[in-house]
């Protein structure tokens, strides 16, 4: 089982006319859980869902996409909102209304006590915003010997503009995680002036990570395994609509492949993965992310779509 842990929030996307906004379900964890389930993986979402209108919308959206909400907390706080703007290349910029909202108010009693043999994927704002971030890190630190921990740093500087604090937080999570996923932009913000792949390699060595995944936008993606040269996968050429949810589609696809191949049941299983399997999963994830970029908002592909794209690329 892959347990996805973190936020389910509402993205407010610009409409066709000034002042027109569309409310769409979003949040890194929610997007990743949907991506995993569309790819056939078992992936319940551990989240806190508001009882307000937006929270009910999020719950309905997740259920419609087959996401198991057995651990979703019925939260009294309001839902988190993210206003989204796009630059000329389709890249998204976010402004969050997150103070005191449902996603960050975790208490230890709300978290499952048994995760041995599972993979827990956590990231984005849930690993930064307090009081929940510290609760989640302590929970996973106590379980990392038998639970595979995946961490998506997914830097949102607008939520925490102090990059020194963000860097310290990310390093703290790398001490807990076995898998790191980051974009080149994430690593450039955290380690300015340093090549992103070299930064990922350093984090693997310094923190004992078993795998680091770096997405490079149009240049593809890289996987770093301890003791091996970086593995690279090209980005399939697509017509980009926007990049919302592309990173979540990528990590969802990679984790789905780890589960399918038998490498997600704990740290020992992942440590047995060799470069060939790691590269094949990387290619699969790169194609999933590319397909996500061809659609407005977060809409990850299913397994049939990714396999069709892979078949087209091979032919």
TrEMBL record:
The keyword Nucleotide-binding applies. InterPro entries: Carboh/pur_kinase_PfkB_CS, PfkB_Carbo_kinase, PfkB_dom, Ribo/fructo_kinase, Ribokinase-like. GO terms for molecular function: kinase activity. It comes from Nocardiopsis suaedae. Belongs to the carbohydrate kinase PfkB family. This is PfkB family carbohydrate kinase. It holds the Pfam family PfkB. Residues 3-300 form the Carbohydrate kinase PfkB domain. Keywords: ATP-binding, Kinase, Nucleotide-binding, Transferase.
């Amino acid at each position: 089982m892959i347990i996805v842990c973190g936020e389910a929030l509402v993205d407010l996307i610009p409409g066709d006319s000034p002042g027109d906004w569309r409310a769409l379900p979003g949040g890194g964890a929610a997007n990743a859980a949907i991506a995993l389930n569309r790819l056939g993986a078992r992936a319940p979402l551990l989240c806190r869902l508001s009882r307000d209108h937006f929270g009910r919308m999020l719950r309905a959206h997740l259920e419609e996409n087959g996401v198991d909400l057995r651990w979703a907390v019925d939260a009294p706080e309001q839902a988190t909102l993210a206003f989204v703007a796009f630059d000329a290349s389709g890249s998204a910029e976010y402004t969050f209304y997150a103070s005191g909202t449902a996603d960050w108010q975790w208490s230890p009693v709300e978290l499952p006590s048994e995760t041995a043999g599972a993979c827990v994927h956590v990231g984005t704002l849930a690993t930064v915003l307090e009081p929940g971030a510290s609760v989640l890190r302590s929970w996973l630190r106590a379980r990392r010997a038998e639970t595979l921990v995946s961490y998506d740093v997914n830097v949102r500087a607008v939520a925490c503009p102090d990059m020194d604090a963000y860097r310290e937080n990310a390093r703290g999570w790398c001490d807990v995680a076995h898998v790191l996923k980051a974009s080149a932009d994430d690593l450039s913000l955290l380690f300015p002036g340093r090549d992103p792949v070299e930064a990922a390699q350093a984090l693997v060595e310094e923190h004992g990570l078993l795998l680091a995944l770096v997405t490079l936008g149009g240049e593809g993606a890289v996987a770093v395994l301890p003791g091996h040269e970086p593995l690279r996968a090209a980005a399939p050429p697509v017509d980009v609509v926007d990049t919302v949810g592309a990173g979540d589609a990528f990590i969802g696809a990679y984790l789905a492949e780890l589960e399918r191949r038998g490498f997600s049941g704990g740290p020992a299983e992942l440590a047995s993965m060799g470069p060939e399997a790691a590269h094949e999963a990387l290619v699969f994830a790169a194609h999933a992310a590319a397909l996500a970029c061809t659609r407005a908002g977060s809409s990850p592909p299913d397994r049939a779509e990714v396999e069709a794209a892979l078949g087209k690329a091979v032919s």
